């Protein structure tokens, strides 16, 4: 099981699954610029590695997925002036994946505790979310006189109903895992010691499918969120045509006809 140890991030490759872990449990897995840069490097490797089909994003320990931006590091940069802030925070997108990062491989967030501010924004940038029963969520930025600036104002209202999303953004309030499950923010709520097993189970299930079909389907879904239905259907048809000429698209029906498990190769 290859493992790539950065200073603040652990990156593992388990078969077809890439696991990226924020490794700052003493700081509630808060994200400073160096952590963002390491996360971005790990996620870019995951995106570009043809042998990896599904990613899992989590935080070390059981207390937090991530408490968000490291406000100590942010305050220090502020004290050094605007140029210092710009230099420090332009190295990589916050959390590595919240903007300027396109990846059509599925990414599962394994949320093991506090998932606040930028932590929630990183989870929102994932595709499927599994939460521990004790997980706590929120976008409290306005209570610190800032706004969710890593996608929170855009992704939360696209995932949960508009009214509750806007209330949470404007009040900076917190909510628990059952609220998150009720409104569709998370897909599963499990016991704390089952968060990673459940994420791995979901990843394994996705890996059973044709990887090209999975990626093209994901892209079609996200594309359709921002266009009229007619354009979405046109794009879906284009994606379908692309995958139908693949080797995997021939293997799937053949395996079914021969009553055996398909051997997908991602081509």
Spans of 5+ residues with little confidence (pLDDT < 50)?
none
Radius of gyration: 19 Å
Extended strand count? 11
**Total helical segments:** 11
Shape: globular
User: If strands are numbered along the chain, what order do they take across the biggest sheet?
Assistant: 1-2-3-4-6-8-11
Count of domains: 2
> What is the makeup of the main sheet?
7 strands, mixed
| End-to-end separation | 24 Å
Query: Which H/E pattern describes the elements?
Result: EEEHEEHHEEHEEHHEHEHHHH
Structural class based on helices, strands and sheet pairing: alpha/beta
Task: Give the integer mean of the pLDDT values.
Answer: 91
**Approximately what portion of the residues adopt beta-strand conformation?**
15-25%
What's the level 1 CATH class of the largest domain?
Alpha Beta
Please give the oligomerization state of what you see: single chain
CATH topology of the largest domain: 2-enoyl-CoA Hydratase, Chain A, domain 1
The helix fraction, in percent, is: 40-55%
CATH superfamily of the largest domain: 2-enoyl-CoA Hydratase, Chain A, domain 1
For the record, the CATH architecture of the largest domain stands as: Alpha-Beta Complex
